[in-house]
Amino acid sequence: MSIAAFIEYLALEKKCSPHTLTAYETNIEAFSAFMKKEQHEISLEEVSYGEIRSWIVFLIDSGNSKRTVNRKISALRSYYKFLLRIGTISVSPLKEHKALKVESKVALPFSQEELKQLFTQDLFSEDYQGVLKRTIIQLLYYTGMRRSELIALQEGDVDFSSGLVKVLGKRNKERLLPLMPEMASQLKILLREQKELNMDKESPYLFVNEKGKKLTSTFVYDTVKSYLGKVSTKTKRSPHVLRHSFATHLLDQGADLNAIKDLLGHSSVAATQHYTHSSMAKIQEVYQKAHPREKEDK
């Protein structure tokens, strides 16, 4: 069974993003190339865990982190699950494999004060580039949407009358996110700027550069990293950390975890609980103020 059939399955059945498809195909092809280099004259369907273990050792010796190795093996595991599903193999060679243990790294969210400085100081230029970059960062933080979701937004996804924006998340799952009045005003400013420039948009996308072309993932990442560097000394400054900050600040203010899960587009609350680590101090403060036993002791 070809790797191409597996990638097609991921695209059509699992609705994986182009980025995910490329990553999976690259990792499986890398394992296939390793097998040929080591002169293992067997197909991918015939490999045993021994060959995969050799690849793991090779990857670690080549300087790959345990996290990277786990990601590569995860792609391979999905491939063998696919082969099991269609009956090409009867047992996965990764059936007994356990992921390499890695240290849990929780990215520190930006503080509310840092983000307040970002939006209240005159850091953004008044031209189209400045308006575009401010709107990008503001929307990421005000809604908690993913970078890919922001890039894919179309003008028709924003309903100013109802104060909602429709987001297409992972695996084509739609969700509605509320637009605060301040955020809605900023989006209207962006659209007005585009109109005044007589921008010849080649697509229906909301976020475009001055030539009317859809933004790249790199542009959004670099924008966030650059501007957050003006108000924060944190080394990790990415769109994902803004998303993390959105969830953390909601939790700090007492928002329900399930509500945050829905806003983030998580399939289960387990993924959302990752953000509780950053809010533990706030949670302890609320506990001490609100728990009846605490009140009785005072």
Supply the key terms.
14 helices; hpI Integrase, Chain A; 298 residues; 2 domains; mainly alpha; DNA polymerase, domain 1; single chain
Which secondary structure elements does this structure contain, and how are they paired or packed?
Layout: H1 3-12, H2 18-37, H3 49-61, H4 66-85, H5 112-120, H6 128-143, H7 147-152, E1 158-159, E2 164-168, E3 174-178, H8 181-196, H9 217-228, H10 239-252, H11 257-264, H12 269-272, H13 280-290, H14 292-297
Antiparallel strand pairs: 1-2, 2-3
Helix pairs in contact: 1-2, 2-4, 6-8, 6-10
Give a written overview of the molecule.
55% of the residues lie in helices and 4% in strands. With 298 residues, the chain is mainly alpha-helical. It folds into 2 domains: 3-85, DNA polymerase, domain 1; 112-287, Intergrase catalytic core (hpI Integrase, Chain A, Orthogonal Bundle), CATH 1.10.443.10. Helix 1 runs antiparallel to helix 2. The radius of gyration is 23 Å and the shape is globular. The model has no long low-confidence stretch (mean pLDDT 88).
Summary of the model, kept short:
With 298 residues, this protein is mainly alpha-helical. The chain has helices spanning 3-12, 18-37, 49-61, 66-85, 112-120, 128-143, 147-152, 181-196, 217-228, 239-252, 257-264, 269-272, 280-290, 292-297; strands at residues 158-159, 164-168, 174-178.
Helix content: 55-70%
**Classification by helices and strands:** mainly alpha
Provide the β-strand percentage band.
under 5%
Strand order of the largest sheet: 1-2-3
The average pLDDT is 88
Task: Write down how many β-strands occur, each being a DSSP E stretch of 2 or more residues.
Answer: 3
- Seen as an oligomer or otherwise, the chain set is single chain
Looking at the structure, what is the overall shape?
globular
By CATH, the superfamily of the largest domain comes out as Intergrase catalytic core
CATH topology of the largest domain: hpI Integrase, Chain A
The end-to-end span amounts to: 70 Å
Query: Element order, helices and strands?
Result: HHHHHHHEEEHHHHHHH
| CATH-scheme architecture of the largest domain | Orthogonal Bundle
Instruction: Please count the helical segments.
Output: 14
